[in-house]
Amino acid sequence: MNLSLIYTSTPVGTTQTVMIIILLALAIILTLYTIITLRKVGIAAKKVDYFFEDLTYKSEMLNATVDTVARVTNYMDIFDAFAKRNVKSWVKVATKNKDVVYKLVDKLREFANSED
User: Fold this and answer.
1) What does the DSSP assignment read for 65-93?
2) Cβ proximity of 80 and 94 under 8 Å
């Protein structure tokens, strides 16, 4: 074996050996630092993902609530138009809420055609 390259007595060879050892130590430290940093970034990414998932869940719940409130206000408008016996307001509400009116007419037909 030729160990004289590693353990040389010349100042240039000793300097090279010391520099190689320092560079290896720095590479190990930087590798460990990179691993730790990437783990922290992964944890932060999971937290952001959970945050957006929570927002999505809450917005889905809010959408159902908004739809319910919209339906209730439509029914209130229809009742108000009937209560006032104002044909103009009834036509206005009916044209604005065609799907509600169609459902109401279908239910009235089913009720009229029922045996009971």
Assistant:
1) HHHHHHHHHHHHHHHHHHHHT-HHHHHHH
2) no
What's the pLDDT tens digit per position in 68-113? 777 777 777 767 766 666 667 666 766 766 776 677 777 777 777 7
Q: How much is the pTM?
A: 0.41
pLDDT in tens, 25-34: 999 999 999 9
Q: Six-digit token pair at 82?
A: 């009937």
Residues 6 or more apart whose CB falls under 8 angstroms from that of 71 comprise 100
Q: How far apart are CA 104 and CA 102, in angstroms?
A: 5
Instruction: Please list, in sequence order, all residues whose beta carbon lies within 8 angstroms of the beta carbon of residue 100, skipping any fewer than 6 positions away.
Output: 71, 74, 75, 78
Closest CA to 49 of 96, 57, 100, 108: 57
- DSSP-assigned letter for residue 104: H
